[in-house]
Design brief:
The chain has about 325 residues and is an alpha/beta fold. Helices cover about 35% and strands about 15% of the residues. The chain is globular, with a radius of gyration of 19 Å.
Length: about 325
């Protein structure tokens, strides 16, 4: 498995009385003068909120996807979490992913600034953060630098230290996407994805991975052209800075759950003592028969685990 989020949907989990609200990007000029090089962007997001949640003064749960993914990968689980917890759930697109802006810059510092801008503009003083893979590392970085804004933290199958060897496949994947040629003969998104999928088949042999990547192919009504939602060149250029997690002086002391797949190698047990030095309130849970995609491979166990953690950490 590569360092990504493969989306799977569960048709038997449709929530009742659920509002799914998507707000489009707006431009803000809020820039931290001490970090002008890390200018924030306004991230695209989707909100999930039950009717009962509207009457509760409860802090939201903010979710960030993994590398090469998007907020749509969390559509089903986001709804399920909102129903289970009766709390507002917000899923975000990281910069250079999904519907968020493309920039030449991409680093943990930038993602921290983007999340800070989002929370400030939405008047969110404190939130529960959940991140998978790349998103988990970004949420760790945010908690270490803005601990007062994070009530608790869920990190899904990622370590701030070691990484799976499969991460080294990412440059090959990105270059394969960049080499794709889109024919004007294909008129619909379905036929375009089919044609592009055939081009990718020799270099990306896993059909689940190809289908996941093809979800990033979209159509622009204004230009009448198909395009990748991923900023492929920036992701290629900045990958070294993403693979290496920065060193932070801070320590996060509040409740933290590292929720991992027992079959995954993205968080090694030998990392636990070092993690506890930076996240002193951390607990580790490994879900049986799950790999890197814990939330899609074992959705029931995942949902029960995070709901129990949030209940206990109040």
């Amino acid at each position: 498995m590569t360092w990504i989020l493969l989306s799977k949907f569960f048709s038997n989990c449709r929530p009742k009385k659920l509002l799914n609200l998507h707000r489009s990007n707006v431009i803000f000029s809020m820039i931290d003068p001490l970090h002008k090089s890390a200018q924030p962007v306004h991230m695209a997001f989707t909100e999930y909120e039950t009717v009962t949640a509207e009457d509760k003064n409860e802090i939201p749960i903010i979710i960030l996807h993994g590398m090469l993914g998007s907020k749509t990968n969390w559509n089903t689980m986001g709804r399920q979490i909102a129903v289970k917890t009766s709390r507002k759930v917000v899923t975000l697109d990281a910069r250079n992913h999904g519907d968020s802006p493309h920039t030449k810059e991409f680093s943990y510092e930038h993602m921290v600034r983007d999340l800070k801008l989002f929370m400030d503009e939405m008047n969110i003083k404190e939130a529960s953060l959940l991140g998978h893979s790349l998103g988990g590392r970004a949420m760790m970085a945010f908690a270490l630098t803005n601990p007062d804004m994070v009530r608790d933290l869920v990190i899904v199958d990622i370590s701030p230290y070691s990484l799976s060897d499969s991460v080294h496949n990412i440059p090959h994947i990105l270059k394969s996407l960049k080499s794709v040629k889109i024919s004007k003969k294909n008129k619909t998104l379905v036929t375009i994805r089919e044609a592009v999928g055939k081009q990718l088949e020799p270099s990306i042999k896993n059909p689940d991975l190809r289908n996941f990547l093809l979800m990033n192919l979209a159509y622009d009504d204004k230009s009448k052209k198909y395009f990748w939602k991923l900023n492929i060149q920036t992701l290629i250029d900045t990958l070294p800075s993403i693979i290496n997690f920065p060193k932070y002086e801070g320590v996060y002391t509040k409740p933290t759950l590292f929720l991992c797949g027992a079959l995954s190698d993205f968080l090694k047990k030998e990392d636990e003592p070092r993690i506890l030095e930076k996240f002193t309130g951390a607990k580790f849970l490994y879900i049986k028969d799950a790999g890197h995609l814990v939330h899609s491979q074992k959705p029931h166990e995942f949902l029960e685990s995070v709901a129990s953690f949030w209940s206990d950490s109040k």
